[in-house]
Structure prediction request, 227 residues.
Amino acid sequence: MINKLATFFYWLNIRTWASLLMLISVKLHLDGKENVPRQGPFIFVANHLNNADSLALTAMFPRRIVWMVKKEWFATPVVGWLFRLFGLIPVRRFEADLKALREAQRALDRGGVLGMFPEGTRSQTAALAKGEPGTAVIALRTGARILPVAIWGTENLKLPRDFFRRNHIYMSIGRPFRLREAKRINKQAAESGTREIMMQIAVLLPERFRGVYADAGESLPAAATTE
Prediction:
């Protein structure tokens, strides 16, 4: 029942003010929309340049995204209340958060889309920083498909100043893939999976945004299978 209410509230907002705001303020350049699975669970992963990223990605996406969001946002007046109504998952960043992990698995078990920024925070340089292992751990535990998405054009946005300017935002959606099953989900498996996820995002980005994954254009690790 709670999930149904969250879904209703989610689409009520996305199809009203969020879509209107995107229509007014954004010129979207989207590539790879055909790669989005129309059904079944998967993990949506993207680079993170600006607080506006999640709004832009959510508004353009054809399915509901259950985002994992840093716990601090839930203590913010109004915003925290709205995030709870949206059914978002609070997570303690940079540490093992078992409660968030269980919530993430439940979202996937329901056939939903789990949204994550594997870097764990916004990039301070607009280029990819080293990914955190949380996304890979969830993917390895659940066997869920991963959908890599790259976003740029938001790196210099200032809100609310730029709400009513015609901002060019670029998104590129890659093919869904799975991490190769690990015999044990240990530190090595998590690190290998994290690198694979970040490389799949990096190859979708222009070279200047690839950061520590600058070699992504040369070759991708063979650990993943696309489908």
